[in-house]
Amino acid sequence: MICVPNVNSIRKLILGEAHDTVYSIHPGSTRMYYDLKERFWGYGMKRVVAEYVAICDTCQRVKAEHQRPIGLLQPLKVPEWKWEEITMDFIVGLPCTQKGHNSIWVVVDRLTKVAHFIPVNTTYSGAKLAELYISRILHDSLDTKLRFSTTYHPQTDGQTERTNQILKDMFVVEPPI
Length: 177
Ligand SMILES: [Zn+2]
What we know:
- By secondary structure, the protein is of the alpha/beta class.
- The chain folds into 2 domains: 2-66; 85-173, Ribonuclease H-like superfamily/Ribonuclease H (Nucleotidyltransferase, domain 5, 2-Layer Sandwich), CATH 3.30.420.
- Helices cover 38% and strands 16% of the residues.
- It has 6 helices and 6 strands, in the order βααβααβββαβα.
- It has helices at residues 8-19, 29-37, 45-54, 57-66, 126-136, 158-173, and strands spanning 2-4, 40-42, 85-91, 103-109, 115-120, 145-146.
- The strands form 2 sheets. Strands 5-4-3-6 form a 4-stranded mixed β-sheet, with helices on both faces. A two-stranded parallel sheet has the order 1-2.
- Strand 4 (103-109) and strand 5 (115-120) form a beta hairpin.
- The relative contact order is 0.10.
- Residues 149-154 and 173-177 have low confidence and may be disordered.
């Protein structure tokens, strides 16, 4: 074990060898500290190493390049089969029909963009909706994957929301008789 004196030039030499010569690969501070600890001891070495890595120009540039830009859309993978992946939403707050429906369940196939508008009631259970889904939509495949949309993942539901807007516009232009 080599005891490193508290002399800046000697410390810099060792830190440089361990971090940014052609034989080192700019290790992070934790990794670098554990490597050095095997052979060297110095007062406050952990902090010294962390400071050295923090101001390394190369490390900062690499870090900036690898950081993901925040706020970009994450596109969903394109489905290969009809009704393999769907998006859905409910248009609620509509006046009740004679048949007891007060909302519209909008289901859009992500591949073909075919939309189904199914009259439902807000009190319908999940089982009832599943029954409706099978009878109204599914004849070919039950392999549909649900991608639940929440306020925190609005990109999941862009398609349905757009369809809902079109539907709402239709209501305005052509009010039901
Ligand atoms: Zn570095």
